[in-house]
Design brief:
The complex is a heterodimer of chains A (569) and B (336). Chain A has 569 residues and is α+β, with helices and mostly antiparallel strands. Chain A has a domain at 27-152 and 427-500: Periplasmic binding protein-like II (D-Maltodextrin-Binding Protein, domain 2, 3-Layer(aba) Sandwich), CATH 3.40.190.10. In chain A, strand 20 (478-479) and strand 21 form a beta hairpin. In chain B, strand 1 and strand 2 (88-91) form a beta hairpin. Chain B is 76% helix and 2% strand.
Chain lengths: 569, 336
Amino acid sequence: MKKKAVALALAASLCAAGMGFAACGPKKAENELWITYFKGGYGSEWVEQLARKFEAENAGVSVRTDGDTQLINSVANMMRNGTNYDLIFCHDITWEDFVAPGYIYCLDDLYNTEVSTGTTFADRIWDEDVLASCRYPDASGQQHYYKVPWTIGTAGIAYNLTVMDRVDGYLQRTGAGRQWNRKAPVDYYDLLQYCTDIVAANLSADPDEPTSEKIVPFTWSGVAEEWQWDYVMFDWWGQLAGPETMNTFKNFGNVDEHFNLDVSKQNNPDQEVYNPDKAAVVRNSDGTVNKEASTYVGWKEFKQAYQLWYDLVVNNKDWSTKKTGSNSKFENEQAFANGFAAMTPAACWIEYESKTFLEAAGQEISIMPTPIISEVKLDSNGNVLPKDSNAAAVTLDAIRAEAGVIEKTVTVDGKVYNRVSFTSSFGDSAMIPAKSTGRDLAVKFLLFMQEEENAKLFTKLSGGTVLPYKYEYWNSFVEGGEDKASAWQKAIFEIDQNSTKFNNYTQHPMMRKTDLRGSARMTTIWPTNNYYYFKAWQGNNSIEFKPDRLFSDIFKKVKDNWNVYKNDL
Amino acid sequence: MQEEITAGAAVLSDAENAVSADSETEGITPKRRKRRRNGNFFKSRKFRKNLFVVCMLAYPVFQFLVMWAFVNFDSILMTFQKYDTIEGWKFVGLDNYANWFEKFRVNPAYKVMFVNSALHSVVGMFVIFPLCLLVSYFLCRKVPASGFFRVVFYLPSIIPLVVLALGFSNMIKIDGLLGKLYEGFNLEAPALLVPPKVRWTVYGFTIWAGIGGNLLLLSGTIKRVPTEVLESARLDGVGTMGELFRIVIPMIWPTLVTLFIMSMMGIFSVVFQPLFLTDKLMDETMTIGLWIFNKATDNSGNVQAATLGIMSTIVVAPIILLTRWGLDKMFANIDY
């Protein structure tokens, strides 16, 4: 009897274990499409609704969607060892690694598919830069498509409209003679003026509680996300040196005539891209770029952008919240959404992420086109001088638009400048595992997503995020002839429509394989992914973070390590 | 043991004779007799004993082959290869190792990483471990509310690290509990989660969270020390500290050695503490384990991580073995 009981218990355990193993790998039917996606700033609503719509349009097909906040950590394992998912949407995927071993499904057929008469899927992609980022060479050097870009991010300085209204109230009361009227500062001097006005207004975050925390110009997280200042820096860099310089920089000088990576040169990267004394572009007397004389190699303009940041943030330490050294990413977003600061460096997803707080606090936000560095004057120590100063040692200026160019420009004080905007989250991708059993359905879903109506639906449901297709994203919130987009969303669309977009994505192995990228998953502009914004702000004007010293130290470190990096190539 | 085996053989021989006699009387063929003899062999004590040993060893051997040899074979092999982003894997001999030596030479961040890891090991051995021993000892001396304190000290060990780190970081933030305390004294709270202080914050956290780690094990071991021995020592006038250092520690030495060696392994085992505390990867708080974790996400990173792992093992393993050998020699093993 005792033996029987033991046998019965063992059999029960075996069954339970068997069922457990069975649960590890659920069966997937032939007509099922499994999608997994990074559950972050775009939310889940978009995928849920698109999935149901896809099911409705494809009878008998069932779509399963699984959001995952940690997808970035498991996606490589999925690709190597197999997964039930047919379509993966994630950021920072090193999909290029999956090409040589054949883990990723080639999408050449998708890109050649005609989506409407005479228009292929490839034609629908945002621009050639985005299209090039989806290609990768196989072992024979032939370029193929392997991924579909997920989004086109927009970033810069977010500003709180409700706070701006209150600053206007103060200006009106004091008879200052100027009003911001919800219009963002256009140039650097405007930005300085706005910060000065905020400080002078000495507003309490809670209007009903005068002793509550005072509103400061900036909130940012020095602990977790100081890199968001990059968004501003990159735009200033782009204004000073043009997007071509970013392309040359991220490819270490190994570019072809279109500033795309030249694979044949990639084993000979040029460390001079980090040289802070070398200007990348040479200007003509009218402020336009002398293309023949410019090498597009050099970091002087980036150092100048840092100088402007330094003057704005470090030289005005009190303009940032005291909690800069402790606020996490979400605490920073909350502080901004609750009106504790007038501005924060941010990207397009912040409104969607802060929705609850914005509604609760009754605040409205927008994002400004990064102010133009229009003839900023600096003294010999790099300090900003007044706009009308005659004692300037250096006068910075954004690149002027060539004669006759009117598209994607901005006019300041009668001068026409090229308008640029850095694309954040450029590495966000959709890909299909080669071993997927639902590849055809996955391809069909991607084709479905790029359709005008569905792309707009994505934009609407993700709070204004734009897909990298040619579609009327700016009309995504139009209902019954009325545009229901928020001020934030309208600003995003305006920036995307009227700026030349550029990004820091590269397939250069120097950035992807070596220690130069440090702890970064993908590209980093700062060598070894070391950031200095917080250290500089916290360092109370410490000499080591002043532009000249910092950039000279960085270049030295790069030179010291260059051979090590090259050995890892 | 030899007597047992001889006795067993005699029993077996008697049994065989008996079987032989039976077969003669019952007319069993030699073939069937052999089968019968084999049957007896399987029932023999020697066979059953060997079977027991084999069964007991099978799992660890299997575990070693699969979870160590197989897994590490792949890692070791990887250290002699390089991943070409277009052509795939290539054999490169010892290049990866040579490049690591060069990295250590030219990049101060790696030196910081090693110093951090080594310091975590030192903190584990000479701060956390002695503190844990002291706490365990005093809790075993039935101080008032010892049960309560045991729970308090042990609590951090059963709370998930991520929760613990979150609680700790919220407590020491500028606007956290510590910040409020400073505010109360009209002082500005220090920024403990960013450089330069963050490095010491991580050590503080590992100490705070680590004291209770071995509490149960040490308490249990100390409680096993015979009370007669302790009473006798007290009658001889031995004080509290004398009791600890001259009686308790020598008597629980084998356990202490094991736990000390485990503390030494802090050089590899401090992985997520800096990340969870600061929500960021920083040179100032980087450890070998965290660096390997962060790099092991793509092929190129895997190669670097595997090479660092092997090199660290080559350096640290002999030190640990030597330490163990030395510590084992310090006190004679006492059975009680």
